Amino acid sequence: MILKNLSYFQERENLDGIKEAILFIDCNKCLKKDKNFFKNEDCRYCLLSILFKNKNKKINEISLLGKDITIEYHNVKLFLEYFKKLKKVKKINKKIEEIKNKKCNYGEFKCKFFPSFSSTYKIQDFEYYDPILVYRLLIKRDIRSENNIIFDPICQKCYKYIKNSEKYVLKLFENLNVIKDFKAFQNNKTFAHKFTNFYEYIFSKFAYLKEKTHTYGNFCLNENLSLLSEYRIGEDDVFQIQIYRTPFEYEKRYFVKFYSKENENTDYSEKIINDLIQNIEVKEFNQIIPLETLIEIYKDEILKNLNLKYKFSKIVKRRITYLATLKKLNLDKLFPLLIDNSIEEIFLDSPNDEIYINHQKFGRCRTSIRFNLKDIERLKTLIRLYSGKRLDFMNPQIKFVIKNKFFNCRFAIDIDPIQINGFALDIRKLNKNVLTLQDLLKCDTLDPLMAAFLYFNLLRRINITVTGETDTGKTTLINALDLLVPKEFRKIYVENITESLNQNEFGKHQLKYKADSLEDLIRQNYSKSNLIKTLLHRTPDIIYLGEILTKEETEALFHCLAAGLKGFQTIHANDIESLIHRFLYHFKINKSCLFDLDLIILMKKEFNKRRIVSLVEIDKSNSENGKFDSPIFQYSPKFKKWKLLKNLFNTGVISELRKYEDLSLNKFNIFINLYHDIFEFISKLKKIEINELIELFHRISYYSFNSIGSLKDFWDNWKKTRSLN
After folding, report:
1. Integer Cα distance of 496 and 517 in angstroms
2. How far, in Å, CA of 325 to CA of 310, rounded?
3. Residue 212 contacts by C-beta under 8 Å, 6 or more apart in sequence?
4. Residues 160 and 305 placed together within one structural domain of the fold
5. What's the rounded mean pLDDT across residues 3-16?
6. Full residue range of the structural domain in which residue 252 is found
């Protein structure tokens, strides 16, 4: 009945930061897991025995895995009260059981008054955990003993001892609250029709079922999972995110929980939410309503109904209204993932799978969120509606960006006939948490010396190309560098999907163009390659081209580089050699054009760690031998650090700069050493807010163009105001 390792504890923090202990009972491991918990006596004995074993431990909640039942621990105080008396009850009853063998003068014969003495008084060890069973046995014995007339003085003495002992134990039971509740249950005729037994009544009263309506990423917890992190998202922190580690797996578990109020009965909240939803009619509109407007309309209606029927604090009202609105719009499964800015990408490979994600900090995480056919059709309709594009047998792919105050995501959907399972979903988050160069230094994406060299070249508008495989952090890196571009620079952006950062709030000059996607090149005048060419007449200091995808875009890129425009761009490649081959053989670029590339950065991802593995420049001297790239920095996996492979002053990009800038070796070294000190220092500081970091580098760029002395003085003074402790 009771399996080994059936129960275990797990500690987690509540919304107030207070640690709570959860007692998990894994019913999935039980041979009788398919039985009705409220009616099955084995389930009852199992739960009560586990409660007894943990009666002295501080527990906040009991969760029955596989049954989706949670019991608040304060609701089992009835049994804790009984367990305190159990030792005394067992001791007295054991004495009664043993009296026949140890003290009875007629021990070898049957008892005159109780021929079946052993079966009458024997209580199995596991039965003691059940107070109702023990109480009923005592009552039964007491009734049977009343009918006996005893003349034998020896038997009278034994009988008196048993009678007094039982009377004492019964009195103990009569004062227990669980027995009082049991008597009330017996006297209530309506309960007899509603419940099979007292325990079905008492457990269903104290427990609440975890319906899928308030769990969005649930999975079967077990003793092997350990909590890694908790954080809250959404308006008024309505969702709590929990990340769990599983042994021997790199993939984590991602769990979403709805909180209407700390320590509130979640089942009660769900009933309220369902009541609100049922009393709100679906709105009809004669035009397409923006999603955030639609959400606000329903929130207003639901809040009116909530105010009329229920009394809660303002924050609880807002939370309940928020979730009820999402459920009414059928967004409750996906919405928490869309607004979690720590998520980089969301995947669903087929209707038969669960959703899984790429988390910015914890890497690949699995949820147990599934889409049924209705969910899939609703999502397809939503994307068709807002994109104005077809999604059918003749057009089985669609890509569209939905941007609002809640999220900014690129949705990509594939259906029949190109998707073998009929439906697949990929959602790329475009409003991920902004990682600055300070963050990347802390994550060991690069080191301070490399950052110093890149910053020196960035100020002088050296072109930087970042390459690597998918999801290696290419765009994250160029966005971090873009934040450090001097404030006065005019920056022009051309992107298919807007992944660059909005820096207008920081006083930066940004002119942005959106090119037609690859799937929609009918209007060739607005293709990315044509927009790149128009940059020659827009006078940019820096160009940001985002991802270079096609032969036409590559040709336009080199056209701009040859004309003197410099900036940032990304392109997919496995390594530097593969990138060169793409340019030369796939895109048919003349090899002489490669010399305009300046610096190329190769990025790699190792599990959840993204880093620069090499920083190279195009080397004219070895191009005749087919070797175009010359490494400057190279990451060493063995030593877990970067090696400087050539003197920075003698690199090709610096040698080219010296043709037009008075840049002596001493002056260059002073700059590099200062920048190195800056990046090393901020890498050790706690997180600097993005606006403060931008202002810092605005001052650094200003003094860099002014004089080395003023830059050094500024930096020395700035450091004095900060502490590494």
Report:
1. 6
2. 17
3. 218
4. no
5. 64
6. 226-429
